Amino acid sequence: MSYNQLLNKTLEVVRKLSASDGMGGFTDGTDEEWISVKGRISPASAQTQTMYQALGVRVTHTVYLQAGVPVAEGNQLRYGTRYLLVKGIKDPDESGHHLELQCEEVR
Question: From 1.20.1070.10, 3.30.1330.30, 2.40.10.270, 1.10.287.110, which CATH number describes the 3-106 domain?
Answer without folding.
Answer: 2.40.10.270
